Automatic annotation (TrEMBL):
InterPro entries: Rieske_2Fe-2S, Rieske_2Fe-2S_sf. GO terms for molecular function: 2 iron, 2 sulfur cluster binding; dioxygenase activity; metal ion binding. SUPFAM superfamilies: ISP domain. PANTHER family: 3-PHENYLPROPIONATE_CINNAMIC ACID DIOXYGENASE FERREDOXIN SUBUNIT, FERREDOXIN-RELATED. It comes from the Bacteria. It comes from Stenotrophomonas daejeonensis. Gene3D superfamilies: Rieske [2Fe-2S] iron-sulphur domain. This is Benzene 1,2-dioxygenase. Keywords: 2Fe-2S, Dioxygenase, Iron, Iron-sulfur, Metal-binding, Oxidoreductase. Residues 6-105 form the Rieske domain.
Length: 110
């Protein structure tokens, strides 16, 4: 588990309906942060069906989901749960915060 917060981007670089990526500085986990109507959510940037980055997929702001471009698995960006096959396992959700004009996230898994 990482106690170190990773800088993702400046707050004004992540507008509603956008996503930005980074890597946890301690664990190396890929992170994608979503801005959904001003609320920030962070998931591991990896589809749980086939290890492919979710950030290359489409963010559906109406549904609050991201779709993996590889096989069409969709995940709820708010809690990471898988919304349809071929993914059945949730994408890990990470803590995210705004601080000092920036957006920060970290891998908090044990």
């Amino acid at each position: 588990m990482s106690e170190t917060w990773t800088f993702i981007c400046d707050s004004d670089e992540l507008l509603p309906g956008e996503m930005k990526t980074g890597f946890d500085e301690v664990t190396g986990a890929p992170i994608v942060v979503f801005n959904l109507d001003g609320e920030l959510y962070a998931l591991e940037d990896q589809c749980t069906h086939e290890e492919f980055e979710l950030s290359s997929g489409h963010l559906d702001t109406a549904e609050g989901s991201v779709e993996c471009v590889l096989h069409g698995a969709r995940f709820d960006v708010r809690d990471g749960r898988a919304l349809c096959a071929p993914a059945y396992t949730a994408a890990p959700k990470f803590p995210v915060k705004r601080e000092n004009g920036g957006i920060w996230a970290r891998d908090d898994r044990d």
